Amino acid sequence: AIDCVFYALEDHTITGQLKAVDPDHDPLVFTLINTAAKGTMTLTHPSTGEFVYIPFDHENGRDDLTFQVSDAQLASNTATISMILTPVNDPPEVFSQEMETPENTPLSITLTGTDIDHDVLHFEIISWPVNGMLTGANAHWIYTPTTDYWGIDHFEFVAKDQSSESSQGTIQIRVGVPEADIYVAEDQSVNIVDVLGFQPTIATAPENGSLQQWLYTPHADFNGFDRLGYTWQGSDIQEAIIYIKPVNDPPQILATTPDQLALDEDHSATLHVNVHDVDHELKELRCEIVESARHGQLAVSQMAISYVPVAHYFGKDNFTYRITDGLSYESKQVTITIQPVNDPPIAKALNLEMMEDQSIELPFSATDIEQNALSYSIEMPPEHGKITDNQYWPDENFWGWDQMTYV
User: Fold this and answer.
1) CATH code of the region 4-86
2) Of 162, 181, 228, 327, which is most buried with the most CB atoms under 10 A?
């Protein structure tokens, strides 16, 4: 067994092959002696020493393991495998917020975020509010709504460290909760008797909701104003104003989006995500990877996720993604099944030397990653001799070079 050193960036998978020699050229079996401290090490093919090393998230530095090889009778010395993980800068993460302020009233806002590398963060506004003004710098801002404006306003921001930038965060501001007799959040219900303090006689029903047993429920996804007419103790008809506060509805991953992928070894697959959101257009939504695949690479393009497995890997894998509108999200796990395929064997070139008018045995040799039983055949026969039962016989009195091709 021979000491080996492999290099990779933090959070990147290492694939490679351990090294060993055997004077007798016997088939060898590679065995790990101890486990990795900063990741997981798997011998994908113990007969060839091929492996996959997956570092733990955000680990860097040196990780040493040991291994040995054995043939049918003897075990080798213990050799060291050194995994050198070069640290990389991780982008910061920001936190979206949902806030409220009365009409014509400034609001103090503190932008928040975190950085796993503990770098100092600098915040930057990338999309300014439409119905108000921001004053301030870095993480601390004052939002002043436009005079007499009420409704929903928002702005977007990112956090930066010395070399990277976060994904965008959203500050959503509900401005000027209007005067009303009854308040209820979108898609919620309210008992009007509890709010009014008496039991009225309903004169005109609400237009944008239903009233059953004094429980008012707005129509699905409706927000804004509604009203109902009532009398009490013989009074004239009076009107109760109902204000339905808008709320952010999370995007929905439709059932038509599969939660399983199937592909062949050394092939790729793409998941197309089907989404519905009552509050946002599709172009306003983002698809993000929450937990990456362990045995392959993922790439996101709008609402499509492509998966490419590690070379020669077959078996199970999975990843988790989410669809977000900046304030809320829905996530889903995808299970991947990679079916094994037969890899062709690789024949070894032979260079042989012999005496004139004598024969020599042809030691055909090849490697097969699945360790299947192999057979050999001559594809192009020699020009100056013949082959019989794996023996090469040169033509009489011939000397010099001859060649043939086998598979």
Assistant:
1) 2.60.40.10
2) 228
Instruction: Give the integer Cα–Cα distance in Å for 405 and 149.
Output: 84
The CATH fold of domain 252-339: Immunoglobulin-like (2.60.40)
Judge whether 189 and 215 are in contact, CB under 8 Å: yes
Residue 75 contacts residue 305 (beta carbons within 8 Å): no
Instruction: Write the CA distances from 298 to 154, 180, 309, 317, integer angstroms.
Output: 32, 50, 9, 12
What percent of the chain shows pLDDT beyond 70?
99
Q: Is pTM beyond 0.85 here? A: no
pLDDT of the residue at 257: 95
Phi, psi of 132 (to 5 degrees): -170, 180
- Gap between the Cα atoms of 88 and 90, Å rounded: 6
Architecture of the domain made up of 93-175: Sandwich (2.60)
Superfamily for 182-245? E set domains; domain 4 (2.60.40.1380)
Task: Identify residue 49 by its one-letter amino acid code.
Answer: G
Integer angstrom CA distances of residue 203 from 113, 215, 223, 239: 52, 16, 23, 9
